[in-house]
Amino acid sequence: MSEPSLKQRTIGALLWNLLDRMGQQVLLFIVGVLVANILSVEDYALVGMLAIFSAIANIVLDSGFSAALIRKQDATETDYNSVFYFNIFISACLYLLLFVCSPLIAGFFNQPLLTDLARVIFLALPFNSLSLIQTTLLNKQVSFKILTKINLIALTASGIGSLAMAYGGMGVWTLAWQPVILAFLRTVLLWFFNKWRPQLLFSISHIKELFGFSSNLLLAGLVNSIFTNIYSVAIGKLYPPVQLGYYSQGNKFSLMVISSVYSSLQTATYPIFSHIQNDKERSLRSYRKTIRFTAFLTFPLMTGMVSVAYPFIALILKAEWMGCVPFFQLTCLAGIFTILSTVNQNFAKVQGRSDLIFKLEIARTLLIIACLAASLKQSALIMVACLALTQILIYLISIVVIGKAVGYSWLKQIRDIAPYAVLSVIMWGILLIPGCFLTENYLLLPVKIVIGILFYYGINRILGSAILDEAIRLVLKRKSD
Description:
Layout: H1 3-36, H2 41-48, H3 51-62, H4 65-71, H5 77-109, H6 114-121, H7 124-140, H8 144-167, H9 173-193, H10 204-238, H11 241-275, H12 280-316, H13 325-350, H14 354-375, H15 380-406, H16 410-430, H17 441-462, H18 466-480
């Protein structure tokens, strides 16, 4: 693949992924706001208590095989079919285990309703198992246009269903059935649009071969899920349910943007970088450019969200939800380093260094345990602030460890991202000024957004930002193609 075609393919993949992710998040946002203004904070707290179990189950379900199949350039039908049947078996075992353990989960949180809620929410697992290979194949083929259509159709339909249930008075059951309906619809659409069908092929030796690479990703994912969601468990156990409701909603809103950015970057770059993994110089050049582009986009975006948090939440949600604002701001700040860490780890995966990812997750786990222990007797807000600090520290550790392994030193990366970090901090300071004069949120929000965009674009234009110029050229070229 030539350099121009690689660049065009990468940008095309990124644009379709951004459209997919942003489209999904816009739909989730609209439906989420409408539903949140009907349901109570406590309803969200109940579902938030189950987040860690759903996250762990989905990590085990995938077991890192998707990434292993994408990375394996000569993957065979036996590989795909073996993983397909293995995923179905694992999903059945997981659901039965969680079904039996649901009363124990309810007892731990002292919330009897969780037994039935859990048994409904975990029904999404079998449907997800049927869609993993279909999704993996489309990702490997860089067929993001099809994936975009599938995801948007499924989300729209499930969103309409959620609104109907919420307005129909189903309460917390709206939140329980929504992910199940989404998983079902997405699976049906994937099988309709993708022509791959399973065959009677299975080889345990093929599973073992793929697991040699995926095992570290599985372990890393498990550690990540456990100790990211452990805060939901701690807040749900130690504080009134309303605090978990605030944290869940604030984290949900920030994740809409965070996941859109890093999922787009990860999904688009991983299969394409896999094609050039043996060209070290070319891979490193692409990696460094991706880091600069990520910083260029992420720092102002997340800093801007911190600045507009109060008027934004005040305008879209009822007054009952204002307690989620500081949680939203903290998770936005942490999100900057979550995204950057994801890009670094993605490149390590491409280079076959899944062992580094696992080691970094161990380091992250130790940091989270230390921060959690230090903040147990404090407020829920201080606990989440410690989580944000942990994400910053793990990013700094990752650029040292991964940088040394791939030849991109931590100092070079800091220099690459520093200009965008500094400009974003200056932008944040400037955006404090309108709040001194404007008290009406419907005026304050658009004024801050416009000033932020004009400042960041203008200063990058004045300073002659190469990333800005290239981004504009590529977008305009894409439109003209």
